[in-house]
Amino acid sequence: MTRPLVEIPFVEPQTTRRDFLYVATAAVAAFGAVATLVPLVDQMNPDAGTLAAGAPIDIDLSKIEPGQQVVFRWRERPVFVTHRTPDILRNLQNPQLISELADPQSDELQQPPYARNWHRSVKPEFGFVIGICTHLGCIPMFYPLPNASSPAQGWLGGYFCPCHGSKYDLAGRVFSGVPAPYNLPVPPHHYVNDTLVRVGENPAGVSFDFGSIRQI
């Protein structure tokens, strides 16, 4: 049984006693600036046992603005959901970016077969990745815009893990020469309708098992 997700107004970032994975966060980075927090989204009501068992979650994409990222939890893991703009989509196909990636064609089993494409999702406009660095399990930060020096020299936009410097693009593809060995995992997902996506469930006729991926 799936349950809807409810948006919660953001006041200011703060540390609470709740585990980070129970709280959804979103961030947008401005050119030359530090990432800024934007409205939070959280999943309501399902108990820990239900979530741990992998019950699918429904996400209303109509509430996610272009360029915005929100974070949900599925199987007690953060799922980064990004509404990718035309500029972001063009950048994902930029030859300079592709030349710096370790697995640009998603050859390693880190995604369902229907997400083994340049955008690593069912539809290019929306990305879904598990927000856990494949190095040591840290949470990468969202820096969507290119920047000459921040958070790293010659930044091309994507995710940066502050723990040990691993980098990913906005399709979750890992860069070469960083500690992380694999792309960020892509969870099973399919469109219920034009604006509703069910994460944790494959499209009809596909039996991909998320437990078969190479590494979380």
Through-space gap between termini:
25 Å
**Hey, roughly how much beta strand do the residues contain?**
15-25%
Radius of gyration: 16 Å
Order of helices and strands: EEEEHEEEHHEEEEEE
Please estimate the helix content. under 10%
> SS-based structural class?
mainly beta
Strand order of the largest sheet: 5-13-12
In CATH terms, the superfamily is Rieske [2Fe-2S] iron-sulphur domain
- Which CATH top level class fits? Mainly Beta
What does this structure look like?
- By secondary structure, this protein is mainly β.
- It has a single domain (5-203), classed as 3-layer Sandwich (Rieske Iron-sulfur Protein).
- It is 8% helix and 24% strand.
- The chain has three helices and 13 strands; from the N terminus they run E-E-E-E-H-E-E-E-H-H-E-E-E-E-E-E.
- Strand 10 and strand 11 (167-168) form a beta hairpin.
- The chain is globular and about 40 Å long.
Strand and helix layout:
Elements: E1 5-8, E2 26-28, E3 36-38, E4 40-43, H1 48-52, E5 57-60, E6 69-74, E7 77-83, H2 86-92, H3 95-99, E8 126-130, E9 141-143, E10 158-160, E11 167-168, E12 189-191, E13 196-199
Antiparallel strand pairs: 1-4, 2-3, 5-13, 6-7, 7-8, 9-10, 10-11, 12-13
